[in-house]
Amino acid sequence: MKTSVARHHNAKTAITGNTTIAEILEKNEKKASKLAETMVKHGMHCVGCLMAHQETLKQGSLGHGMSEEEFKKMLKELNKIVRGK
After folding, report:
1. How far apart are CA 45 and CA 60, in angstroms?
2. pLDDT band at residue 13, thresholds of 50, 70 and 90?
3. Which residues contact 67 (CB under 8 A, 6 or more apart)?
4. For residue 20, what is the DSSP state?
5. What is the CATH number of the domain that holds 25?
6. CA 68/CA 73 separation, integer angstroms
7. Cα(3)–Cα(78) distance, rounded to whole angstroms?
């Protein structure tokens, strides 16, 4: 039973391309500053934008001209922060 709870928790906190930018920050309040800093570092300056509530991470990255490779790198960094690694 503990295993299924752990899996559910990890699935809930994992950031995907379909996660909205606002969700990333709201679900990870204690790490929001570091997450925002990482997104800005990768050219995603929409952290405080009104579109952050509607736009997914993938949509935002495409809108800012980010390559698929850059997107994957940023996504990996964001998930490392969320997981505390």
Report:
1. 9
2. low
3. none
4. B
5. 1.10.3910.10
6. 9
7. 24
Q: For residue range 66-83, list pLDDT tens digits in order.
A: 999 999 999 999 999 999
Domains: count for the chain: 1
Four-CA torsion 60, 9, 29, 34, nearest 10 degrees: -60
Dump the DSSP string for 26-61: HTTGGGHHHHHHHHHHTT---TTSGGGGT-BHHHHH
Question: Which structural domain, as residue segments, surrounds residue 67?
Answer: 2-83
Distance from C-alpha of 39 to C-alpha of 42, rounded to nearest angstrom: 5
Contact assessment for residue 35 and residue 24, using Cβ atoms and an 8 Å cutoff? yes
The residues with which 20 forms a beta bridge, in sequence order, are 56
Contact assessment for residue 29 and residue 46, using Cβ atoms and an 8 Å cutoff: no
